């Protein structure tokens, strides 16, 4: 590569995992933090891309959160994610950067797809209302990436679509986190306080697919290495899903929580199933490697370390 990898979103969960893996692989990567560049400021983003002169740009930035956070602030989720994506893609094009990897989201898919979610399903049906704003922004950025290449084939701006994530550097606050991280926080606090039950939103039968963030980092850096063979849009998922009840049971085993559960049927639960087809990724040569139990154990160890609690708390 003639220049470094420029990573936007390097302080988030995905970005941290990409930086860690890039360091282990001795790859040159530049990852400006929030204090160095405001991604909502188009001029600031353009100046950063121009000064770094990267060989490839990775767009892993965004405002993210679970159902509660998305329902609480749809304007911010739509506006900020669109502005970040637009600013990054347009700055890369203006600077003549020919290669870019954009991260989408499984929220981009229709809520009532009759089968596992395939890349060609985007824009074929109604979105899930609980995270519609976020999904619209991510779809718009993916389409902008496609349009840039359609207008000028010198620019190959490709999109990876990960499923839900968990792992090191996750946000564990249940008011804004996704299922796996929220479960770890709730179960740990219940174990520490001796609570007899932990609440689960809904009846726990909806199905979700979660990927260890370290596996996504591996896919992203493989995309950097094998960019020419990477399809324009590619799902990056675990290839299997579980019920919410299953995730809580697995997280309870990792945390060491032995109490029970209570289902709150008044809470929203989102799509009944959201499993992605990973056939395209497998044909390209990538697959997830981290079993759920191992990933949750590593995530809980990180959670304890981040809270300053001894590793013995895991037992």
Folded structure, characterized:
With 315 residues, the chain is of the alpha/beta class. The chain folds into two domains: 5-166 and 210-236, NAD(P)-binding Rossmann-like Domain (Rossmann fold), CATH 3.40.50; 179-207 and 241-273 and 291-314, UDP-galactose 4-epimerase, domain 1 (Alpha-Beta Complex), CATH 3.90.25.10. Helices cover 42% and strands 15% of the residues. It has ten helices and 13 strands. The strands form four sheets. It has a six-stranded parallel sheet, sandwiched between helices. A three-stranded mixed sheet has the order 11-8-13. The protein has a two-stranded parallel sheet with strand order 6-9. α4 packs parallel to α5. The chain is globular. The termini are far apart.
Cα separation of the termini: 46 Å
Please tally the β strands and state the result.
13
Structure class: alpha/beta
Tell me the number of structural domains.
Answer: 2
Mind telling me the C-alpha Rg?
19 Å
CATH class of the largest domain: Alpha Beta
Specify the biggest β-sheet.
Answer: 6 strands, parallel
CATH architecture of the largest domain: 3-Layer(aba) Sandwich
CATH topology of the largest domain: Rossmann fold
Spatial order of strands in the largest sheet: 2-1-3-4-5-10
Classified in CATH, the superfamily of the largest domain is NAD(P)-binding Rossmann-like Domain
**Assembly state (oligomeric):** single chain
Mean pLDDT: 94
